[in-house]
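Consider the following assembly input.
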Amino acid sequence: MGLRTLLPLFLTALVACHPPVPGEHGAYSMEATGALGDPVGFATDDQLATFQRGHDVAVRRFTRAGGLGPAFNISSCAGCHEKPLVGGGAGLYRNFLLSAVVGSDGAFLPAESAGMAGGVVRMYHYGPNEGGIARPAVPDEVNVVAQRNPIPFFGVGLIAELPEDVILANSDPDDKDGDGISGRPNYDRGFVGRFGMKAQTVSIEGFIRGPLFNHAGITTDPLTDDQRAALPVDSSAQDAAADSRTRAFVDDLLRFAQAAAPDGPTLDDDGVADPELSTDDLFDLVSFAMLLAGPRPDELDATTKHGAVVFDTVGCNACHLPRLEGPHGALPIYSDLLLHDMGDALADHVIMKEATGREFRTQPLWGVTAEGPYLHDGRSSTLDGAVRWHGGEAKAAVDAYKALDDGDREDLLAFVASLGGAAQRTDGLVPPGTPAPMVGEWGGPVTALTGDALVRFEAGRALFDRDFGREDGVGGPRFNGDSCRACHFDPVLGGAGPLDVNVMRHGVITPGGDFAQPYVGTILHKQTILSDVAVRPQAEAAIFEHRQTPHLFGLGLIDSIPDEVIAANADPDDARDHDGIRGRVAIVDGGRVGRFGWKSQVPTVDEFVRDALSTEIGLSLPLQPGLTFGRLQDNDGHPDPELTLDDTALLADYLRSLGPPPRTPATDAAAAATGEGLFHSVGCALCHVPALAGENGPVPLYSDLLLHTVLPDDALGIEDGAADMRAFRTAPLWGVARTAPYLHSGEAADLDTAIRQHAGEATTSRDAYQDLDEASRKALVAFLETL
Amino acid sequence: MPRLLAPLLLLAGCGGPATWSTLDAVSGDAALSGVWGSGPDDVWIVGGDTTGGRAFHGSADNWAEEDVPDGSGLLVWAYGFGPDDVFAVGRGGTALRWDGQAWANLPTGTTEDLWGVFGFANDDLWAVGGNVGDDVPVLLHWDGSSFSPVTLMPTQNNRSATSLFKVWGVDGTLFAVGERGLIVQGLGTEWQQVAAGSKADDDFVSLWGTSADQMVAVGGRSNARVATWDGSAWDTLAPSGVGGLNAVAMEGPETAVVGGVYGYVGTFDVATGALTPEAVSTGLDLHAMWSDGLGNTYAVGGVFAEPFDGVALLRSTR
C-alpha cells in the first residue's frame, strides 16, 4: 500500500479522533457548484452545447400532434421544474397524485389511471379511450392517495456519481449508535437509490423517462449503449461489462451503472408514432439534468455562522449531513440520501421499493430557500413550518428546535436559507428585480406609468405572480392554481395557459335531458389541501369539458365598453337581419351584462378577480358591497377572509392596467391584407366584430362579447350563467397569434382547426371558409396571426 | 421437470463449489431468453434478434443453430417431452414445435406475446403471455392438436395484470405467474388466483419446482422478489439490496439458483430464505435458467433491443 493510499486513511483516523466542531462544515467543490440553473464548472465545451440543447428540450411545449397524451398532467418538463427557473421545483398547482390499492393480502399495487402509469393519477385525457371522459377516473378500489410536489434537479449528476460506499457509510438501520437516527438506503435494481422523495430511483435516465410517460404521455426508447457511454455521468457499464467478461471489471464499473435505465421502450396509443421524443433529444435532456450544478452556499456571515452552530447543536446535521464526498470533491448537499422514519404526520402510506409509508429520503437542503413549497406534498411554504412537520426520527431535533429562543431559531433558518439560491428566490416565478414590460410589449400597461402608478402596477404584478401556500389559506379545500400566474403565463404574465392548466368542468344530465350542476359545482378541481384525498366527480356526472385559460390582456379596455354598445349587436331572434346569427346579451347577477369568461358569466374585472381568487385558488374574501362574486368563507381550516379588499383592488387595478396584446407584423403583408378581406366576406366578422367602442376609443378585440350557439346540435356541454349547454361568448381574437391552443376545450392546436370546429350559428361561415381555396384559407389565417 | 430426475437432484445438491463459465459458441449476436433440455446432452437455447427467432441446440461447448420458420417472432421460452418433441413460444403469438428434424409453426390464434410454455404431457400443455400493459393475460391450452384460449375473469385476476410470464407444474400441481404479483393455480381447466403475501407487489417472472410442495418463483422488476410454495400457500420475500430476478432453476428441493438484472446470480436457500450471490463474467440481464439435475445449470440472457447482445453461462458443481 503506497503513501498516497495510506494518507487518506491516516487523515480519516485523525478526524475520527475528534468530534466535529459545530458549524464547521468544511470546504466544498467550487467547480461542482454554482447559481441555480448553472452548468457545472467542469463541463466541456461539447457538454455545454448539449446542456443548452437539453434546456431547450426541457422547455419544449409538447402538443397533441407531437405526442402529448392521450392522458397527461403536464405539457413540458419545465412546467413542473420551473421554480425559481428551469430544473427546479414548482408551486402547489403542479402537485400530482400517487394512488394505489392495498389488497386483502397487504400488497401495495400502484393503481391505474387511463392505463398503467406507476400509480400517477392523470388529470387530462383527450381521445376516444376512457369513454371520452376528459378526466380519467380514480378507480373506486383505490385506498391510498398521496400528493407529490415536483422535486428539483439541481446537482443530480453529482448525486448520481457518488460512490455507494459514501452513502452506505452513514447508514445505521438498527441504530447501533443509539442516537435515535436509523437511516437506511433504498435500493433500485440492486443499487443504492438516490433520487425521488423516497430515494426510489437510481437512474437519471429512468427518472426522466418515467415522468415523460406518466405525466406527459411522451414515449421514448432507452438511450443506446453508445449514448449512455457519452453521458456526462458514464452509464455504459452494462455494455462494457458484457465485453469485458471479467467480474472484477464489472464490479469496478457497476457503481456508474446507477445512471443507466435498462427498461424497454414506452408505448402509447395516441396515434403518434413511438417514440415521441427521439433518443437524441432524450440524450440532451438527460445530459442537461446531469450537468446542472449543485447549489452553491452563500458566504457565511455572523448570523449564518451562528445559525450553522445551532443547526448542528439541535441535531439537524444527523440526517442533513453537510457534505458528501464525490468524484468532483465535497458536495454541500446537506443530506445523507438515506431513508428515515418521519412519523405519523408526514406518513403518506406509499411504499416505494424498500421505503415504507413512513419513510422519506433526507431532502438535500442546498438551494432550498428558492425551491419551496416544502416537504413531499408542499404542505409548508416556510422553512419554519417544514421543520415543525418533522417527526419520527427527527422528533428530538424538532423538539430542540421548538425550544430555541427566537434569535437562535431565526439564525438557524437564515443559515438554511443561505445554502444556495437566496439571490434567486422569488415569491412566484418572476426573477427578483425584473422590470415591468413597457407599453406596447406583451404584459405591459395600457399607458406609460411613472411614480406611484408604476409602483402600484409592479405591486399588482407581484401579487398576480405570488404563489400562495397552505399557510395562506389556499384551497377551499379544493383549488386549481396557487397563484394567478399559475394559469395565466403564456407568453408572459397575464397571458393564456397551455392544456396542462385547463380547468375541468363537469355536469349531470337529468333523465329529462336537462343540465344539472353537480353538488360540488361545475368546476372539477385538480388539487385539494387534503393530502390523502383525490378530487372525484359526482358519480352521476356525464359531461366533462376542458376549459382553456384565456389571456387577460386588455381586460380593462373590455371593462370600459358600455353595456349598450354590447347590446347594440344583439339579435337573439335573428329578427333584425335574418343572417342566422343570434347573438344574446349574457345577463348575470343583478341584471348586469356579462363579458368575461368563456360563457360571459362574469360582468366586471372586479368580479372576475373575486371569482378567480375564490373558485380557482380557494381564497376567501371580505364582503364588498355591490359585488356578488367570491366566497366569503371556505372549509380549509384557515381563518376567513384569507385576502383583504386591498389585495383584490390591487389585482383588479393591475388587470385593468394591462395593455391589449400587441399586434404581430405579418410575415406576408399582402396575404394578410387579403385575409382581412376574407375575414369579412366569409362572415367571421359577424360575431368577431373587429372593434367595440370603449370609453376611451375603439377596443379592437374582435368579439361582440355576445353569446352564440357554436356547438353541434347533438353536443352536450356545461350551462353557466345565461349560457346554455351549446353557447359560448364570441372569443376575442386579439392575441391569438401567441395564445394557442384554441377553442374553449383547447382541442384545436392551430387556427385552421379551430375554424373548422365551429358549428351552430357559425356553420355558414365555417363552410364558406372550408370552401375557400388553400391559398385563401392560409391568407385568412395569416391575417388572424397578426392580431 | 421430468419426474425421474428428482432423485438425481438430491445428489446434485451435494456437489462441490460452483464454477461459472461462458458458453462462447452461443453468446454474442442474439439476445437469449429461454433454455430447456431433455437431458444433459440435449439442450435448447432460444432467443432472437432483429430477424426474429433464433434457436441453438447442443450442450456445453458443442452447439449448432437450427433454422426456425420464416416470420417467427423472437423466441422467449421452450419446454419439451424428449429430444424429438419440443415446444417454443415467443413474441407476436409465435409457437413452434420441434419433431427431431425441424421446427414447425403451430397456429395460436393470437398475435400477443407468449412468454412461457409448460406441459404435463404433449397433449396437455399451457402457453401464457400477453402484451404488457395492454388488456388481459393470454392463457392457451394445447390439447395435442390445437390451442384454445382461456380468459381469466376479474375474480381470477384482481390485480389487473395484463400478462402472465411463466407457467410450471410438478406432480400435478400447476401454477402460472405474472404481472403485479399475480399467481394463479391451474385446477384442471380452471384457474384460481392464489395470494402470495404483502411483498407480492411486483411482477413474478419465472418459477420452478421439484415437487408439489417445493416450488420457487422469482421476480421484481427493480428489486428482487422470491416466493416459495410449501404445498399449501405461497409466501414472498423481498431481499434487500438485490435487483430484480428473472430466472430460477432448482438444483434440489432446498436450493434454487437464481439470476437477474446486471448479471446477478446467486443461490436461494428455501429453508432459510438466504440469498448467496455468486460471481459471473457478465453484466447483461439474465432471463432464464435450466438445471440438468446432474450439477449443471445453464443461464441465458441479453439485451432485447439493438444490438441484441446475448450471453449463455454454465454453472457446474461437478
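Chain A has 23 helices and 24 strands. Ask yourself how this observation constrains the way the partners meet.
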